[in-house]
Design a protein that fits this description.
The structure holds 3 protein chains of 3 kinds. Chain A is built from 10 helices and 10 strands. Chain A is of the alpha/beta class. Chain A has 2 domains: 159 residues, P-loop containing nucleotide triphosphate hydrolases (Rossmann fold), CATH 3.40.50; 68 residues, no CATH class. In chain A, helix 3 packs parallel to helix 6. Chain B is mostly helical. In chain B, 71% of the residues lie in helices and 3% in strands. Classes of the chains: A alpha/beta, B mainly alpha, C mainly alpha.
Chain lengths: 234, 330, 288
């Protein structure tokens, strides 16, 4: 469903991604792994068009994503949860969630989607009128995921979904991702913790200094020397 | 950006100075000299503005205030106290520098560029309106005249040095001297610890702060020196044209002209402001016939150089080798 | 006392016009962080459009003003597309946009000078009468200004709070990337916002033109008033600009009573620099 081939990304003169290739099948959960600064966030941002790719091909169901502006990707069925939530802090929870359905003009459809995300996140209905910026980090993450689901994506990109969250919240988010997956939505997320990631994903890609150094299923990767070298410095 | 000066650079600068010194003897044309003098006044103004805006990265839009303060201060000191312009231009430059420190202190606390732009523009407007309203002292819009000229003197070997409207020669040499002094001061400053710190600050405030440099004081110093030089240019201008009006000496048109010069020449380069000042002054004169169109063209030049020539004429050579801008890291 | 009261009321009315201009500057800054130095020229062009329609072509004001507003709206969008949109992706966009709009301002001012000449043009009052309320005499023209300002502000408040566009605008101003990933086309929002801000300037011009004269330089002083307004209210805040505008109108009215009219601008700028010095986030905003 999503194919990336030979992706090079620069920040100014500094190259952060080197020849990255990656595929995501339909209804698949894929983890992008790697230590800090390995470029795993950049991969997701490049898919969404938040950072420009210099070379390479990114296609989604036959569409050349490099030619589609960020907001247009939402219409194609891609959605993204940004790192550190990035809610509209001065707006209410309800407004934040409804903004997720910005590209949908059908009121009945929006109501259906709202009902769906409220069933996944009861907190949305409970805190409807609260200013989003005043919620805790975990609560904000739920609203952020709910917001990104409101566009009814077929591919959900999650940038550091567990960053800075308490273990209890991490487990809740893991459950949610499983539920999302069960609805047939593909999920790509990035995370540093390998154990945590493979509890969730079908396959993974390991990035080191902007290059894919290893890919495969969870078991294959966990038993690899490369994972040990990158993570344990062995 | 501040590479060690090569022999080639030294030779080029020496050749340019020699050329400038020889010019009046090659072409004896008082109108040409007049244009050269105006270009030099603007070259000092533009270089000083570039020092703050291009090198220190503090985007101010009110430097015409210091030009007006310098011009009026020198003229009024001459008229009311009978002091010689040889003294008053320096006093006026000091007064402009003090005004610079006065307004610079609050501005430097502000990190938001739009706020700085607004405050500096408004400060210059306050100066202009005040000069215009204090008619008892400045004669307001009627214009201040009777500004004393530089006294002449005898120079051994060379002969009599005179300053009067029909003989531009010595005004030209004096202006040239002031320009060299200004450029020298700016170059010295930018190559010192102050300059390095200031540029580091422009490129990343936090990085420079972590070096433990007292940034605020350095920035203020740069701002003060810049105001001093602009005030000096204004003071010289007062005694050269010998009549001042608030619009001509503190009008917003002045800063627009200077911004156009620096942008056309190249913001953040040593030679850019000087190139821009000469190009636009001569261009402006050749458009004298189309007087009404001059500001229109300056406006268009600002827009066009910002959009299509962001690094100016001074670096036009490298323009074609430049790689397209990449997306920014966030 | 009644004269003093009349002055205050006049101050509020002029202030409501400052509010319209300031809110345009605030909207543009709030959404795309651009300081638009050409804002006064939309006001100037609006003034000329109304003048030509009403005086030269004898179009009735109730029709001429909406035509002018629509034209300036389109012009604002055009300007944004051709200059600002092109500069925003640059690394040094903040300075580039300030400088470009400054150049644009000078360009448009002098274009008007060449096209329309330097004579000051006047537009007759739309309503010539005078009303008396509780012993206060107010020209109907001034009351009309207040009514137009209140209606405009009400419409804008509704648009920002309740419409899809308003939501998108507020979301984009809070976080451009987050807005983009929910499918909001930021570029289009920017262009529309610029058009709306220009149109707000045109409304103020249409209402002020009969009182002041129409001329090529009318934009600059108004731009400065707008700056004072947005600094008072907090740069980028729409409600702040409304309150800031009214406040400036009152301060000026009182200040002119105490000193004299040629110091009016110095009072305004002095107040602004004082506010930047003590409360850079504006009188009503919160520090960030």
């Amino acid at each position: 469903m999503l194919e990336i081939e030979g992706l090079d990304v620069f920040y100014g003169d500094f190259q952060v991604l080197w020849d990255v290739s990656l595929t995501v099948g339909s209804a698949e959960v894929v983890a992008v792994l790697g230590p800090n600064g390995s470029g795993k966030s950049t991969v997701l941002k490049a898919i969404m068009g938040l950072t420009a790719a210099k070379r390479g091909r990114i296609t989604f169901e036959g569409h050349d994503l490099r030619r589609v502006p960020t907001h247009g990707k939402v219409d194609l069925g891609i959605s993204m949860v940004l790192e550190r939530r990035r809610l509209f802090g001065a707006m209410s929870v309800q407004e934040n969630v409804l903004l997720g359905a910005y590209s949908c003009r059908d009121k009945a459809e929006i109501a259906r989607r709202l009902e769906w995300v409220e069933s996944l996140f009861p907190i949305i209905a409970e805190r409807r009128g609260q200013e989003a910026g005043r919620m805790s980090g975990g609560e904000q993450q739920m609203v952020a995921i709910a917001r990104s689901l409101m566009s009814k994506p077929r591919l959900l990109l999650m940038d550091e979904p567990f960053l800075g969250l308490a273990p209890r919240i991490v487990h809740q988010i893991l459950d949610i991702i499983r539920k999302i997956h069960a609805e047939g939505i593909s999920v790509v997320f990035n995370e540093q913790n390998v154990q945590l990631s493979f509890g969730l994903s079908d396959r993974g890609y390991l990035l080191e200094s902007g290059r894919v150094v290893l890919s495969g299923t969870g078991d294959e990767m966990l038993s690899s020397d490369v994972v040990r070298r990158v993570y344990l410095g062995g | 950006m501040f590479k060690p000066l090569t022999l080639r650079t030294y030779l080029l600068v020496a050749a340019l100075i020699a050329l400038a010194l020889a010019l009046p003897h090659v072409i004896d044309d008082s109108y040409l000299l007049h244009l050269m003098i105006l270009s030099i006044i603007f070259a000092i103004f533009a270089s000083a503005w570039n020092l703050v805006t291009g090198f220190a990265g503090l985007k101010t839009f009110g430097h015409h205030a210091f030009f007006g303060i310098g011009a009026y201060a020198s003229a009024l000191l001459g008229i009311n106290l009978g002091l010689s312009p040889w003294l008053t231009i320096w006093l006026a430059a000091v007064i402009a520098a003090l005004a610079g420190v006065f307004i610079g202190t609050p501005i430097l606390r502000i990190r938001s560029m739009p706020h700085v732009a607004i405050v500096t523009l408004a400060f210059a407007e306050i100066v202009r309106i005040t000069i215009s309203n204090l008619q008892g002292i400045t004669r307001g819009e009627l214009g201040l005249w009777g500004i004393p000229a530089f006294e002449g003197f005898m120079l051994p070997l060379i002969g009599e040095v005179v300053f009067n409207p029909s003989v531009k020669l010595w005004y030209y040499y004096l202006a040239l001297g002031l320009l060299l002094l200004s450029i020298g001061l700016i170059a010295l400053m930018m190559r010192s610890k102050v300059g390095l710190a200031v540029v580091a600050m422009r490129d990343g405030e936090d990085a420079a702060e972590s070096l433990g440099i007292n940034l605020a004081r350095f920035k203020l110093l740069v701002f003060g020196v810049s105001a001093f030089l602009v005030g000096l240019a204004g003071a010289f201008y007062a005694h050269y044209v010998s009549i001042l009006t608030p619009m001509a000496a503190v009008g917003p048109d002045l800063i627009i002209l200077v911004i156009a010069m620096v942008l056309v020449g190249g913001l953040g380069t040593f030679s850019g402001p000087i190139i821009g000042a000469f190009v636009l002054t001569f261009l402006g004169e050749s458009l004298r016939v189309l007087d009404d169109y001059r500001l229109l063209i300056y406006g268009a030049l600002i827009i066009l150089s910002i959009m299509f020539m962001p690094r100016g004429l001074a670096t036009i050579g490298s323009f074609f080798r430049r790689r397209p801008a990449e997306a920014r890291a966030d | 006392m009644t004269i003093f009261l009349e002055q205050i009321i006049n101050g509020i009315i002029i202030g409501s016009m400052y509010a319209l201009i300031g809110s345009g500057i605030a909207l543009i800054y709030g959404t795309m962080r651009v300081l638009n130095l050409a804002h006064g020229e939309f006001y100037m062009m609006g003034g000329y459009l109304v003048f030509f329609l009403v005086v030269a072509y004898a179009v009735p004001p109730w029709l001429a003003i909406p035509i002018a507003i629509a034209a300036i709206f389109v012009l604002g969008m055009l300007v944004q597309r051709l200059t600002i949109a092109y500069l925003l992706p640059r690394e040094e966009w903040a300075f580039a946009t300030i400088a470009a709009t400054l150049g644009l301002s000078i360009f448009l001012q002098n274009l008007a000078l060449i096209l329309f000449g330097e004579q000051f043009q006047s537009i007759p009052y739309y309503l010539p009468g005078v009303v008396e309320i509780a012993g206060l005499r107010l020209p109907q023209q001034r009351l009309l200004m207040l009514v137009v300002a209140v209606i405009t502000i009400a419409i804008m408040t509704f648009v920002l709070a309740k419409t899809r566009f308003g939501w998108a605008l507020r979301a984009t101003s809070q976080d451009k990337d987050a807005a983009a990933v929910v499918g909001i086309p930021a570029a289009r929002i920017y262009t529309l916002t610029f058009g709306i801000a220009a149109a707000l300037g045109c409304i103020a011009a249409a209402m002020l033109a009969p009182i002041y004269a129409v001329n090529p330089w009318m934009g600059m002083p108004v731009l400065f008033k707008g700056f004072v307004v947005v600094i008072l209210g907090g740069l980028g805040s729409f409600p702040g600009a409304i309150v800031g505008g009214i406040l400036l109108g009152i301060v000026e009215a009182v200040g002119v009573q105490v000193t004299s009219s040629e110091w009016r601008d110095v009072i305004a700028f002095g107040l602004m620099i004082l506010v930047i010095w003590v409360r850079p986030w504006g009188l009503f905003g919160k520090p960030r």
